[in-house]
Amino acid sequence: MGKFIEEFYYGNIDPQARSTKQNKMVQKQMEVLMLNEDFLTEVLTGENKKKFLDFVNAWGVVNGESNLDSFIMGFRLGANFTYDTFVNNDAPFQDLLMEA
Predict the structure, then answer these.
(1) pLDDT of residue 60
(2) What is the phi-psi region of residue 20: left when phi exceeds 0, alpha when psi lies from -120 to 50, beta otherwise?
(3) What's the first-to-final CA gap in the chain, in angstroms?
(4) Which residues contact 81 (CB under 8 A, 6 or more apart)?
(5) Residues 7, 13: contact at Cβ < 8 Å?
């Protein structure tokens, strides 16, 4: 796992490159979303179509920002685990074999 940061910098590690192949329920629901979006985009007209597309686009922005927030918070959680494991020696009890 050497050069992890360098590989990440050059885009060779993409934490978002994931698939739903193993989760058939999510895969089916994504298909339902896609089919319904396509249907509504075709049958709606005028102001109704505009409102629906505004909804779809707004949902995409909110969903993207939520995913970004989850990624950042997960990354920070992992970094805090690492820091606590390797840097912080605090513990609620004192080691009886060590001098106070």
Answers:
(1) 94
(2) alpha
(3) 39
(4) none
(5) yes
Are 85 and 73 contacting, i.e. CB atoms less than 8 angstroms apart? no
The confidence score (pLDDT) of residue 20 equals 65
pTM over the 0.85 mark? no
d(CA 27, CA 23): 6
- What integer best gives the mean pLDDT of the chain? 86
Distance CA 91, CA 5 (A): 31
pLDDT in tens, 54-91: 999 999 999 999 988 988 898 899 888 888 888 877 77
Torsion of CA 10, 16, 19, 24, to 10 degrees: 170
Pairwise CA distance, residues 68 & 4, whole Å: 21
